Predict the 3D structure of the following.
Amino acid sequence: MEVNALNVIIVMVACAVTAYLSHMGMAVFHDGIRPVIPEYIEGRMHRTEMTTVAFGLSVGFIASVGIGNALATNLLNPWLLFLATDIIGIASPKKWLAPILGGLYGLLCLTGIGGINMVLTGLPVDLIGGMGEVGNYVVTGFAIFPVIAIIMQFGFKTGAITAVIVLVFRFLGPSFTPISGDAWTMMVGVIALVVLCVAKDAKNGKKESDADNLNIFSERVARIRKNLPFLMASGALIALACSVHIFAGSDVSMFDLSKAYAMGDTAEASVLIRTVATNEFMRGLSFIPLIATTAVTTGVYGVAGFTFVYVAGYLSPNPIIAAVLGAVIILVEVMLLGLIGKFLGKFPTMRDASDNIRSSMNTCVEFALLIGSIAACATMGASTTAGAAGGFILGGMVYLINEMTGRKIMRMAIGPVAAIATGIILNLTYLIGLTPLI
Amino acid sequence: MIAMRIAIGGMLKNEMQQAILKADPTAETIITTDMGAVPMLRNGQVDYYFGACESGGGAAISILIGMIGYSKCCTVCKTGGRPKKEEIKKYVAEGKICFGMAVSNIDETVSMLIEVLKAQ
């Protein structure tokens, strides 16, 4: 992640705009802060009280997923930047102060993460090289999510049958098509999930729902439309940050993007980026119900919209196209918002599936990250006399201590954090002569 | 005593249901969605709503805050934190009926929450 004038400006302006959006109650990143904002606007809550809520909901995310994964990937992420700008915007007592503080925070993140990463790169026991293994299984792990979602929603038997079918395609598919095993896994799984959902809906008939409730929120949708210029600016800036390779949108993409950017401008890198973009798109789809319903019921949008601006940023051939696409995507999303809200109100099963899909995506990525991180610990250990088992025990202890003390660090972040900790510990023990390099 | 009726929404619903039944085998649980739980709470079909998400205040209860009201909703365990019995007692005494919690701490939170609700 290069700290040059252009990157500094992009990050500072992006953070300034998102802090302003949050201050004005136009958009926030955290889905949980969205419903609290009308409480403030309609006078049932003070700004200080709202700040406490925002801080409490986000601080754990910023500290673990935000900082931990930014260090592991050397890329900025929305948890680090936008959860903080949510808080900064809400806490700012004055309208003009929010963008200034937001911009300064962006500067701090870019230089801080870049600086710490530079220090880590220079360590005698190779920490950054080892960290490359953290994301090894994320793409494959993510591809399992439809099967896990099916088990959650339809039980063990249906899930086990789907798993067998998916595995057959995974191993046979690549032999007669140019499509990769991971792509087959996900494609067959997603099709199975959709078929099962539709079949269930057809059997149950149309259920009673709260559809009419959503229609009364047209006033809220109008509020979001009124804020469109600002929301589009935010979308453009975020897509821009993605396209200059300093920002990754989610845990699904960040590890492989980091790897792809390190490869430079090669064919292999562009294949990997396309895979990442596909996965990010799938993740975006699963978040539509959550973001759309919270937006329609509160009148507060997301700073990155439905997160499709990330995909545009990764795939755009140049930053200008990325920025234009980012703005257009937000425009289209907001225009469709009322329709999506009505649709989701009519089909509650879609929301049910969406809850399960998001749970299973998390479960799969957490698992893949943990396994990859432990492999990274072992690799770092193996480069010293501590050995692979020595690395394993260091990483394992960090993980288990976190488990036993109420998971202060989120599951999504504990793997990379454990790997970074292992690397630092091994460097310290190297310095005192306990674990020389081999 | 009448069995507690609890609607479950949010993430990891199966795990939530198991945690509730472990804490109180007599409880009646209904797996639904946040939006599906709204009419159930309104017409008294269920007494409480439990939901989990990454932060404990997002996907778990955000729709409930919008549709049932902020005064009925609370987050009993946030990310990186642990549930506090005194805090839960205070929330329950205030009449909160929709409880959001961090997905990483479902077990501990649910057993404490059920204990407090039962003591009521």
Q: What stands out?
A: Strands of chain B lie at 5-10, 28-31, 48-53, 73-77, 98-102. The interface with chain A takes residues 9-14, 32-36, 38-39, 53-63, 65-67, 70, 75, 78-82, 100, 102-105, 108 of chain B (CB under 8 Å). Chain B has one domain: 5-119.
